[in-house]
Amino acid sequence: MPGGEEPGRFADVRRVDETGSTNADLLLLARSGASEGVVVVTGHQRSGRGRRGRTWLAPPGSALLASVLLRPALGPEAAHLVTVAAALAAVDACHEVAGVDLGLKWPNDLVVDIDGATSKLAGLLAESLVEGDRLAAVVVGMGCNLTTAPPGAVCLDDLAGRAVDRDELLASWLAHLDRRYPSPSRVGDLLDDYRRRSTTLGRTVRVELTGETIEGRAIDVTEAGHLMVETAAGRREVTAGDVVHLRPDP
């Protein structure tokens, strides 16, 4: 990290060589009353988690694996804005540090289109602690491929054409997340920026739901973070699912 310091509210950066899951570590700290701004970074996760119960696997030292603890003044229904802010901050950081322009595939993937195919660079996972009707905390983690990537994915070193400094990327992500900190007054701006960066909107997509698959044109992201899809049978609001980009807009 340049100068050995992290920016803004994210000054408490805790580095571990290996852990089960940075998100799980921070959730434990959040439940014990840890202050907003704690960051956990590791070189290897034994039990990294992705969406819908999936695992996130990366060889030791090959990815930026980090989670942050936020306690935003939002209702539980707006917790998704933390993911939106963190994803936009990650796009900002990859552009600033590596000179790479990325898009966002709904709901939480950083991607790049190469020869008409969508390849994943990074994914984010947010997990909330709710107390009554209050959003007590949100932990958001990011796994970003730096030096290697699994089949169908890409790594930042290859996109940049050089080795990208892990600490510099982390510092940039935290600085941009601080700048984009989710609050009620920023809902409109965050969602507008997300829509502009979306590689899903305007595309024909297949959405794989639990027990059902739908196809149609992705037309919007709602204030609740849901994907609106125009299907042959009418509009569907998708709260969670796996999206496949079938073809670009003609």
Distance between the termini: 44 Å
Helix % is 10-25%
Task: Based on Cα principal axes, name the global outline.
Answer: globular
CATH class of the largest domain: Alpha Beta
Q: Give the name of the CATH superfamily of the largest domain.
A: Bira Bifunctional Protein, Domain 2
Low-confidence residue ranges = 1-6
Q: Under CATH, the topology of the largest domain is which?
A: BirA Bifunctional Protein, domain 2
How many beta-strand elements?
12
Major β-sheet annotation:
7 strands, mixed
Q: What would your notes on this structure say?
A:
The chain is 24% helix and 34% strand. The protein has helices spanning 22-31, 80-98, 156-160, 166-179, 187-197, and strands at 12-16, 38-42, 63-70, 103-105, 109-114, 117-131, 134-145, 204-209, 212-221, 227-231, 234-238, 242-247. The chain has a seven-stranded mixed sheet, sandwiched between helices. A five-stranded antiparallel sheet has the order 11-10-9-8-12, with no helix packed on it.
Summed up:
The chain has helices at residues 22-31, 80-98, 156-160, 166-179, 187-197, and strands spanning 12-16, 38-42, 63-70, 103-105, 109-114, 117-131, 134-145, 204-209, 212-221, 227-231, 234-238, 242-247.
Task: Provide keyphrases for this structure.
single chain; 250 residues; alpha+beta; BirA Bifunctional Protein, domain 2; SH3 type barrels; 2 domains; disordered N terminus
